[in-house]
Specification:
DNA-binding; 9-stranded antiparallel sheet; 3-methyladenine DNA Glycosylase, Chain A; 4 helices; globular; 14% helix; alpha+beta; 198 residues
Length: 198
Amino acid sequence: MKTIVPRSFYERPDVETIARELLGKVIVTEFDAGRTTGIITETEAYAGVLDKASHASGGRRTARNEPMYGRGGLAYVYLCYGIHHLFNVVTNVKGVPHAVLVRGIRPLEGMEVMRARRGGTKLTTSGPGTLTTALGIRTELSGSDLLTGPIRLEDHGIRFPPEDLLVGPRIGVDYAGEDALLPYRFRIAPSRLPSWAR
DNA sequence: ATACCGATTAACT
DNA sequence: GTTAATCGGTATA
């Protein structure tokens, strides 16, 4: 049973819960090269204006992060370190800039296309920059709708046991002071995934 | 107009 | 464990 993740999933108030429940959901992109999909294995929650690690910290609002202020279920894609396109799922209602960064996927469909996009024999999709390359996600897709746009999220009914869930502090946000310690990183234990998916 | 820097990655030692 | 690559976004003036 494959269903599009509904608007009501994204528009809930608790971004941590949404980040955790996004594990196991499937990201789908379909461009000229064909359908490519992956199971979400790692996420991080970014809790809006009160979160010093968020691009919306203190109510900061610019052309780049404008999608964060849109309705839940939009994509927020931005360029990091001049190279990497990072993909976020916008949550909460319009005007509340919560988001979830997707940090890892397990490749599911279109493996050869993704491998070609990554330009090598190995297919690494375990980091926020590598998975967007594999899926063909770019900053120009920022602001698109995950229910009707070129990037979609599906529920394939994939579930995993609670003991496989790891929770810890977020990566690369040392500048956020005490907020860097918040347990907002969620992932499926890598040891529970086949080695090619790590 | 200018300066600083990042929600990272890959290739090193 | 360390570090170079790389450039748009943002703040400052």
